[in-house]
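Readers outside the structure-tokenisation community will struggle with the description of the input data as it stands. What matters is that the chain and its backbone geometry are given together, residue for residue. For illustration, here is how one protein appears when written out as sequence plus structure tokens:

…
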Amino acid sequence: MKTFFFYDLETSGFSPRDDRIMQFAGQRTDLELNPIGDPINILVKLNDDVLPSPSALMVTKISPQKTVQEGYSEAEFAKLCQESFFTEDTIAIGYNNIRFDDEHMRYLFWRNFYDPYEWQWKDGRSRWDMLDVVRMVRALRPEGINWPFKLNEETGEEIAINKLELLTKENGIEHENAHDALADVVGLIEVTKLIKQKQPQIFNYLLKMRQKTNVQKIVNLEDPKPFVYSSGRYLAKYQKTTVAFPIAPAKNKNVIVWDLRVDPTPYIDWDFQKIAENITATWEERQKENFVPLPIKTLQYNRCPAVALTDVLTKDNWQMLELSPEIITKHIQLLANNPHLVTNIMTALEQKESFYSENEARNKNVEARLYDSFIDNKDKIRIEAVRNAGARELADFNPEFNDERLPELLLHYKARSFNKTLTIEEKEKWEKYRVENIQRMLPNFKKELVEVSNRENLTTEQKYILEEINLWLENILPDNI
């Protein structure tokens, strides 16, 4: 029997590579959203090689010390996730989990010698993200649900916003302690019930779209068609939704799509170098008034994109999107008549991939190198042996890995969860890594700490967390820094 497992994380910061899971909450339900078993709410120990984001802790109000006192080690937590939470036939579901929570989970499993991907697909498992479901329901079938807005103080306009805590508030759903993982799980289940009740047809349709084979039937290069696409990349003015068109293959058998709201004409004379500069522009460059982003996006089939054929669009939908069948036909024809534009885009994207691959190779931190390559079958057997080994076995366990990342990763794994197994030489290597990692994180940490400390109207609880952060820094800071 398939089940949903709703889950949410609170972390030490935003980067899945550098930051750590501090709180994990979850609730299993059946497909009718009835709870199965008790809710899960646990802490995970923060290790002494990590400096948490002070801003993040001001929101979550979880101190590093509390996780050390009450939390599981990473190795214990990873095992619990594999054996009790993300079990066979489980649909893992969250709110923006595809881009955030799932990435943190992948890096957790990587650090702790589990396959980073199997928990999302093997033995009937899958994943789904309610954020893009909310976006498409709001855009196409908003009836029966109260939708939150925020006021643009400069223009006086109301801007659509889909924050979970605002959705619950607008619809009379109890949701105290927003940004507490368990409170967010409870709130998300109620929002999911609301959508399933008010718009069951689109709910059930998008549930099927979590399978990439179903997405590929709608979006592909063999039989390209315009399609409706809801994504955070698109403008809030149009409910984060547009009509897009597949134009070229992308890395990992994905596809590049063009936003058909945008006329291709101004881009036809762009060479690949200008395109490359555009798609690799920094955040600061993108904020400049004259910056015009290229209207392309990589659609990743395994990220549960919210897509549908254009025949779902009603007259009201077309008006809201400020589009028409005639406009999209015109723009598709322009793309077809100028194949060099697509060729230049593909060349520019290849340059971009090469650039980022070189940067990845220069990153010596094995924990950040999850996406360098897949683990081969022989090493899969060895990593299973690592995670199944107890402290006594790990003390003298040095497998001959094929993957050059794994020996150092094993040292870090032992240091965090089985510290007593380290030899004197291994302790020295670990301390060297710990010092370098803290040195790397320290400048941003100090800058953020000053900013947080200077905030007005900090609550008593936030002031306490601030004191705990300072104590954490004092306790883990190496003597030679």
Notes: The two ends are 54 Å apart (CA to CA). The chain is about 45% helix and 15% strand. The chain has three domains: 3-130, 211-337, 370-476. The first strand starts at residue 3 and ends at 11.
